[in-house]
Amino acid sequence: MPLHDVGYRGWTGRRRGPGHAVGVIMTTGIRLAWTSRWLRRALLFAWSPALFFAASFFAFEQAIDEGRLSSMREGARMGRNLDGVGMLGTVLAETLGRQSSSDAPKTEEEEISQTRRLVWSRLLLAFVRAPQAVLLAVVVGLVAPALISRDLRAKAWLVYFTRPVSRLEYILGKGLVLAVIIAGITMLPGLALWLIGVLVSPSVWVAVATWDLPLKVIASSLVLMVPTALLALAYSSLTAESRIASFAWFATWAACWIAHSSLTTADMMAAANDPAAQMDRETTGSLWGDVDAALGGVDRPPPQKVRWFARAAGLDSTIDPWAWISPYHSLGVMQGWIFGIERRPQAILPPLIALVTLSVVSIVILWRRVDAPARA
Q1: What's this model's pTM, rounded to 2 decimal places?
Q2: Rounded CA gap, 33 and 29, in Å?
Q3: Domain membership of residue 201 as a residue range
Q4: Do residues 369 and 345 make contact, with C-beta atoms less than 8 angstroms apart?
Q5: Is residue 6 in a domain?
Q6: Alpha-carbon distance 261 to 254, whole Å?
Q7: Domain assignment of residue 305, yes or no
Q8: Nearest to 242 by CA among 133, 152, 304
Q9: End-to-end CA distance of the chain, in Å?
Q10: pLDDT tens digits for 80-115?
Q11: Is there a contact between 284 and 310 (Cβ–Cβ < 8 Å)?
């Protein structure tokens, strides 16, 4: 009787392109993640802040259409009260559209164009930096912990790595799952906000004048994607229990936030007794004079209850020396740099180095852990 070799044989077929394996891993991960009702609700809720910012775009453009920038400022100085949406647009123009006093005199159209760019940039920056970054941390914490830990627990690596799938393709596939979800939280709503601003503007030529803002929205979303996705996948690869990976993810964000807040509060308390620091705070507070003038008030420092919005929109000109400790605040500084709000190297370099270091360490952990069971 003939004997047949029933052992392993060389594969003589033709392998598809490397993108095919990445696509299969990505689509499978998205399909499994979408079965969670909490994820669907979180993604739907992530679009809700866009309604408030869309109303801000409309109020600003309505104010320009009604009174023009110079008329609004002259009316604010004379104590004239603009009713309804016009008043809200005036506050936005005077708050978010502040320009340096050293700027050369400009025509009315040039001043309106420059103010529009500042207001739109700061509104988009505040949108991707304040509500969307927090929602991103929550949604990623719901999805990412199970992406690799579930494969380790179910021994799915026996299926993945007995096929012609490399570690790079596996990591890219899992990372694209998070990239698509993050894009649905930050990139798509941000692009929708820019489109709404163009639609409510008096002329479609505003799209040409602000053509680079969609690119900045995409770039700021990529800045959010890379470090957060790598860190979340690194935690997921370290354990077969998704609950442990989820706890590590949320604990990292919470602990870093608390550490940043504690150190910042300590600096503020130390500066409270420093006359020079007090003078700096009064100078910074004078930036809010235009808002108080528009509301008929007096010049005074910004209240603490709106300080978070001032920092998110890039209105707070003070350098955060402890931003590098917290991923949330580091990402905010880098997004401010992308939108052209923050240009000082001493404010940008520490968060940049911290995020690059975090990404490199996460990549090393991922590269060594994703196929560790197969090499054991």
Answers
A1: 0.78
A2: 6
A3: 18-375
A4: no
A5: no
A6: 10
A7: yes
A8: 152
A9: 39
A10: 444 444 456 556 666 665 555 445 555 666 677 777
A11: no
